[in-house]
Amino acid sequence: xxxVDGMSAERETPLILFGLGGVGRALLSQILEQRSLHxxxxxxxxxxxxxxxxxxxVVAPQGGFTEELLAGILQHKExxxxxxxxxxxxxxxxxxxxxxxxxxxxxxxxxxxxSDSTVDALLLALKRGHQVVLANKKxxxxxxxxxxxxxxxxxxxxxxxxxxxxxxxIATLNRLVSSGDEIERIAxxxxxxxxxxxxxxxxxxxxxxTVAEAYRLGYTEPDPRDDLGGVDVARKALILARGIGWHMExxxxxxxxxxxxRMADLSVDSFLTELPSLDEQYRELVAGxxxxxxxxxxxxxxxxxxxxxxxxxxxxxSPLGRLTGTDNLVEFYSRWYNPNPLVIQGRGAGVEATAAGxxxxxxxxxxxxxxxxxxxxxxxxxxxxx
Length: 386
Ligand SMILES: NC(=O)c1ccc[n+]([C@@H]2O[C@H](COP(=O)([O-])OP(=O)(O)OC[C@H]3O[C@@H](n4cnc5c(N)ncnc54)[C@H](OP(=O)(O)O)[C@@H]3O)[C@@H](O)[C@H]2O)c1
What we know:
Elements: E1 2-5, E2 8-18, H1 22-33, H2 35-42, E3 44-52, E4 57-59, H3 67-78, E5 89-90, H4 95-102, E6 108-111, H5 119-127, E7 131-134, H6 138-141, H7 144-151, E8 157-158, H8 169-178, E9 183-189, H9 192-202, H10 207-216, H11 225-228, H12 231-244, E10 254-255, H13 268-274, H14 279-291, E11 294-303, E12 306-315, H15 319-322, E13 328-334, E14 342-346, H16 351-366
Parallel strand pairs: 2-3, 2-6, 6-7, 7-8, 10-12
Antiparallel strand pairs: 1-2, 3-4, 4-5, 9-11, 9-13, 11-12, 13-14
Helix pairs in contact: 1-3, 1-16, 4-5, 9-10
NADP nicotinamide-adenine-dinucleotide phosphate (NAP) is lined by residues 18-24, 52-55, 82, 95, 112-115, 117, 135-137, 161, 165, 349-351, 354.
């Protein structure tokens, strides 16, 4: 939809946002802050049509959201309110029904939830010719058919922040793949928390001490096992594997967590109390790596069709081996990047950096693909919509 203001034409992009947690709220406020940049540089105005959290939705009233109303919703969420309890809020049956009811021509559907309940909504959006942007890894890591449905819509879908947050990991992978370069190996550290733990071990501190410290500093999830289990890293590895073109399911990713099964059902306090029982095992692992001139990293490794995630001894003088602290780092070894890999390193988490990455995806999509054509079918997604 074009809005003519004096001499300049401004294109409006309707946007449905699912998820108003840390990332969704940061995205909303960045969009409001960047209005003039988007207008002046791209002739673009992002027009929210619906905001949804797990409780309900606020749909744009007649005439659209004013900036004041959007700022008010942001404050309402920041104060711990739910959208269902907002004066304009209402409940909704499923994310899919929101896309069905609200998604007009040229809509971008943005998934900033941490739920797989958005899958049908995303596939429906693509089927209708909308665009989708995901910060949420879950839809890309359920069955391969869903990944294919989302990723098969070239120019219609982006998910840059699902691996390495604001770092251009997916874009780099896509560039290598699209040029026909052969990716031989990817190795990466995709968890700031686990990177912090590995640095602690390398510095000679005990496993229990380092985990407890990360927990105290708020570097871990409220239950540290959510980080230590490696599942989040495994999801990122699977997204990369599928990005290379491998057909792979989550069960095929070999995941070695950092605590044994017997500690899975303990309370968080008991888990932390039990941690010293693992210290000796990690001391030996570190000593074994050191004896080989290596260091221990919690790495995702993709090589020869196999994908594994776990503590890995890597060469001390490799980019991964030199990594310290909470940065993410990924090494791409390919036909053209060998023996020295293409390396990306930097902050791999944080709501502002992630929201900025989502916003870049939205803006970049406006310059690609077919826009505002009304209902249209994108090949590859018809059969996967439930
Ligand atoms: N934080 C980071 O640094 C980072 C980096 C890269 C990627 N990501 C990914 O970005 C996503 C969002 O992260 P976050 O930190 O913002 O998480 P969060 O604070 O937990 O927020 C999640 C949001 O999703 C909403 N939600 C959950 N289920 C929903 C549903 N079925 N329909 C609509 N909304 C639903 C929640 O609703 P309520 O508000 O009602 O609870 C909440 O607003 C996650 O998938 C995360 O993995 C995060």
